[in-house]
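Deliverable D5.2: sample structural annotation.
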Amino acid sequence: MRCRYYEMHTFQGIHPRYKRQISERLYLAALEVAYGDSSEGRFQGPYPASVIRGDDEIEVTYDEGPLDVRTAENFEVCCAVDESTFCGSGEWDTTTVVGSTDVTVTLSNPCSIDDDVTGVRYAWRESPCALELCAVYSEENSLPAPPFVLNQHFPRNTPVKI
C-alpha cells in the first residue's frame, strides 16, 4: 500500500508533519484492499482516463467525478515539430486550467497550430504543490489525483484512451 506523500513533502526531514491526512488515506486503502469494504468511499483520487486535443485546448477526462479543481497550475504539455519526437526533462511547456466539468479538466494548448502535442503531464515534480493545494482532487473524499506523464502523440480531435 502506498500513500501519496508527494503532496505533503516539506523537505524538513523524513518524518511527515501531516500525519492525520496520511493516516486517513491509509485507513481508506486498508478498508478496501484488506476487507473489500468501500462504504467510506474510494481510497484513491481521480485518475486520467482519456485526453483529447483541440486546436486551442486539451481536455483531460478522469475516471471518477465530481472533480474539485483548486488551482490552475501543475499541468505541462510537450510540443514537437513532428509526432515521433518526445520531450526530455527540460522541454515541457507549462499550461493552465481554463475550465472544468464534473469529470474533465480543460487546459490551454501552448503549442502552435503546426506543432504536434506529444506529451501531457501533471504534478511531475518531487514536491509539486503544498498540502491540499494541487490542481485536481476528488470531491467525494478530497484525495488528490496522482501525478502522471503521458508520452505519446495526441492527434487533433481524436480521444486517446489511457
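Annotation notes: Residues 1-8 have pLDDT under 50 and may be disordered. Residues 45-161 form a domain with the Immunoglobulin-like fold (CATH 2.60.40.1220).
The annotation will be released with the project's public dataset once the embargo ends.
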